[in-house]
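Entry 14. Structure prediction run on the chain below.
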Amino acid sequence: MRSLLFSISILTLLSCNAQTEKPAADHNDSHHNNGGWVITENEMLHKNRTHESGRMQFKLVNSKYQNEEYVFDQVLEDIKRLSDERYAALAPMILEQDITTLQHHVGSGKMTYEELTLFYLKRMFIYETNPSTSLHSIISINPNVVAQARSKDQSWRQKRSDIFGMPILLKDNIDTKDMKTTAGAFVLKDNQPAENAELVANIISNGGLIIGKANLSEWAYYFCSGCPLGYSAIGGQTLNPYGRGAFETGGSSAGSGVATAANYAVAAVGSETSGSIISPSSQNSVVGLKPTTGALSGKGIVPISHTLDTAGPMAKSVADAEILYWAMKNGAQGGGATNIGTEAKSNLPKDIRLGVFKNLLEDPEYTSAIEKLKKEGVQIIEIEAEQIPLPGFLTLLNIEMREDLPKYLTNRASKNISEKNMAEVMATNRIDSVQRMPYGQGLFEGIMADTTNTAAFLKIKETLLKNGNDFFETPMKKHNLDAIATINNYHSGYAAVGMRPCLAIPMGLQETGEPKALTLITDSNTEKHLLQLGKTIEGILKGRVMPSIFK
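Output returned:
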């Protein structure tokens, strides 16, 4: 895989796909007969039958409801306008470059916002329509994004923030007017919201571009029990660019992490209830920020739990995640996202005190990262992880999703969506269970069966909040810590119920080639401090690695 060369020319692919006849709308089983899709899927299904992880023993890889080739139909003519030669010339200026650098290239006349957008579209098209490299990470493309980028070139001297003209991907549970919002689910395949989610409106008001929607674990991975991370009926099985079919993608913001790692956009927006930003960021060598719940608006996001749900940025650097975070948080009319690129080295914290869990020090990547930090003067305090339970965690999700999802279906989903509650969604899925719910809908069934009464539910919420906070607060106060450092999403559940922000920072690759992250957890509403802390630690670890077959 690491030596795989993409030998089909871009122009040949464009020509072939432009001439391919589409199948009838109601007969999608034949979609994947083009280009060897069936052969590729069958090979992966056969290979993964013996995977050591049950979640990686796939039943399906390709979506039965759309084909990657046709996702790009509305922008094919635009993609053709960027020649292979210009694409190659742009590559070193764009791949792995941060937002500040990209803005400099535009400002100095080396490229335009339109070219930046076309580069990402062409890159997605090249890899996602090749069955040997497709990651199944993109569900839809904004048909208006090229025209929107062109308008940014005409007004770039009035740019309002660093996010101006930057193409951003959204997890497909976040509402947009320009694209459908499916949550990866069959019942929402034609859901066209009337307005943008508030955080999307903020990104746009700051001049950001929404280039498309990323695949996800269906219903944000609160749907099927024990099913693969990154699978949805609409998007198919998202694959990890560091090992397609070998490594998990993380979930539920799988497409956001995978696409960011593969340089399909400047950055992406994910969402998290518990671990759904931190997990795919860790698995794909990208930075992911899960903010304090409530720091960003949740209006216009398909919900699980209003108590725990939050959106957050996923990027290739902490600085880029910070830029996107502030753009998501503040509309231009409210002061806008600040231009923070020049502040990256000016406000870095000194005398950092970092708590590390003793029971994790047997992990080689974690230990290596801690040693690097020690050598640079970071004070490392070893702490014991207390055995604190989180009783009723699933009940919290059950009760709130049962209440919150019908509100979305009634108030936000487009009028053509007839299902208005979970029972109706489940009934629609049963009509064709093989394609609509190949791994079942066990968690939905658990939601419907939960009989927890109001008094017990309120007690559960109170206990979870206390226990989640106690897990971190006791050692942080005792040792006067700036943050606690853990691995991947190991302690995301505690951070979720404790309302604490998390920041995943790449540590590098394991011997197998699978990425791993150092995750920092701090007090609630300390995002500014956490991000500055993250820049310092990122600068020491230098752990971000680009997937080799996507270079």
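The first helix runs from residue 10 to 19.
Filed with the rest of this week's runs.
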